[in-house]
Design goal:
mainly alpha, transmembrane, single chain, 6 helices, 160 residues, elongated, AI-2E family transporter, 84% helix, transmembrane helix
Length: 160
């Protein structure tokens, strides 16, 4: 029973770390959007950046759910300069986030970025888009079980 409590505690700690990582990544997205929108000359750039950063926390949707249609609307309205600028801001945000995400998430939850990535991909293949939400959670629970079993197996009092 003690092992189960320890697994549960470590899993909760990892999930808390995951949400902390998501907030850090959303803050990074917010800063990049603010800079990009300010340079482009978007009205109310801070408020719009905040709204998109909040949407960016949702794993499957991300900032593209707002940025892509926004750029397309400007493109079809003939505002091609703004459309390309919005597209460039979106690309920069995605590239920076894709580089930062494994490191920030891995550091916060204690799971190597590659394992988190593999877990997310496998869960997406099994559960579809819902798998993107539970992939990191599965990696956290597997890591907690592994850690508890390793601690138990390394305890000399358990060897007899």
């Amino acid at each position: 029973m003690s092992d189960l409590k320890d697994i549960f505690y470590r899993s909760l700690k990892g999930i808390k770390g995951y949400f902390k990582a998501e907030l850090k990544l959303a803050a990074l997205t917010f800063v990049l959007l603010c800079i990009g929108f300010y340079i482009i000359g978007i009205d109310f750039w801070g408020i719009k950046a905040l709204g998109i950063a909040i949407i960016d926390i949702i794993p499957v949707l991300g900032s593209g759910i707002i940025m892509i249609p926004w750029a397309l609307i400007h493109f079809f309205m003939g505002n091609t300069t703004i459309a390309w600028q919005l597209g460039l801001v979106y690309i920069v945000i995605n590239v920076v986030r894709q580089i930062a995400e494994p490191f920030v998430t891995g550091r916060e939850i204690g799971v190597r970025p590659l394992y988190t990535f593999i877990s997310t991909i496998v869960c997406m293949l099994i559960f579809g888009p819902l798998g993107a939400l539970i992939g990191a959670g599965v990696a956290i629970v597997i890591k907690a079980v592994y850690d508890v079993k390793m601690v138990r197996n390394s305890d000399p009092s358990e060897w007899e």
